[in-house]
Task: structure prediction
Amino acid sequence: MEEIKSIDIAIIGAGVAGSSAALELCKLGFRDRFILFEREARVASTSRHCNHHGFGILEFKKPLKGLEYATELEIRLQKKGVNFKLKHSLTKIDGDILTFSTPNGEVQYRAKKILFAMGAREGTRASLELGGGRSPNIINTGALQRFTYIQKRRPFKKAIVIGSDIVAFSALMTAKKAGIEIVGMVEEQSEIKSFSLLKPAVELFKQIPIFTSAKDLIIHTEGKEVKSVEFKFGNENKNIECDGVIISGNFTPESSLLQQYFKEFNTQNRSLDIRQNFQAQNENIFLAGNVIRGALSAYKCYFEGQKVAREIAKLLDSKQSSKFIKIETNFKFDWLYPSLVDISAAKKSLCNIRFKEPTKGVLKAYLNGRMMLQKEIDAKAYSTVEVAWINIDVKEDDSLVLKLE
Ligand SMILES: Cc1cc2nc3c(=O)[nH]c(=O)nc-3n(C[C@H](O)[C@H](O)[C@H](O)COP(=O)(O)OP(=O)(O)OC[C@H]3O[C@@H](n4cnc5c(N)ncnc54)[C@H](O)[C@@H]3O)c2cc1C
Result:
């Protein structure tokens, strides 16, 4: 293996968040102090495969398809002269030494600051615990995109979408492009996991029924063919004929490497804990985009990338170290971030909590056992609740506990 090269900043993942962080670092005059690493052959591989609208308005002030959005990012990175290394897949993290697998073998870099921006991956049928038979015609949205836009092939004619987050609605657009009839969308939760207005809009304009609170889903197959999807819908037993199933969403952060190499990995959040400025417990590590918590819209990841770049630029040459405390909870959540409160910036900070189930109650925050904030919540499943720490003053060793009562 070649000798270890030293760099100031390593950005892992040239998706939306990583690329926007790179562009912001250029704007701040740090162009020659970082390398952007990407495992695929092109940047922005996730949005590149979304050849439908839904991107770009807030970041680039123009409506773009995913592929156009990825191209826009790529052109901007090239124009700025960003040093990006494609086909570099991070495989090992040993303190500040990063090992990448490349077509020419392994290479290693030592970085002062590391930004992880590896995105999220779609859940599998196993992670959804769906019953029934097996078939190659049970696929996720990413695979549907590959069939449609890359292989230019229609995998099936008539399908059911299981799931209802933003990516499930993206599957509807891809299916239309592929000429696949969608005969229903099925969600186990009582509400769809995306913007609530999408349900009436899709039912009215696309004539696709959306079944929420669907229970006991079974995919019926014969040999390798999908025949129908059966589920309980209220008192009815629905059995909808189809020859394909698109399993969508249920995203989880692309964080298996973080889990492998960081003992402080937070299994409930399925990622590393971060502070308000996206810095992890280890001061040299930062996170941005969907690797923090699973899938959000691209524009949110883009703006996170910019913010974290400003933080890294500020802290790169600083010797100051700052302390944090970790928020403890007595309840289950899908995600909670930032889950660390940086002491130096505790006063106006926020934390976002997403529950998997509809959740009602009073959320109370206790600082060293004394209640300092309460908030009534009535949250739909998969909606985000914000907790604002107004005028909070914390010291190292303080205990900050959030309780749902
Ligand atoms: C099917 C689908 C449809 C979507 N539709 C929309 C939509 O219509 N509108 C919208 O706003 N958003 C949409 N999104 C969401 C949007 O694409 C994401 O929010 C955005 O891409 C997240 O940005 P990110 O930088 O966090 O992750 P990504 O853009 O996924 O980037 C992560 C990058 O890290 C790289 N990487 C991962 N591991 C490694 C490693 N070990 N080494 C090196 N590189 C690595 C990946 O190859 C990838 O390029 C959709 C997503 C999907 C999957």
Summary: Residues 12-18, 37-40, 44-47, 50, 54-55, 89-90, 117-119, 141-142, 145, 166-167, 170, 254, 289-290, 295-299, 301 surround flavin-adenine dinucleotide (CB under 6 Å).
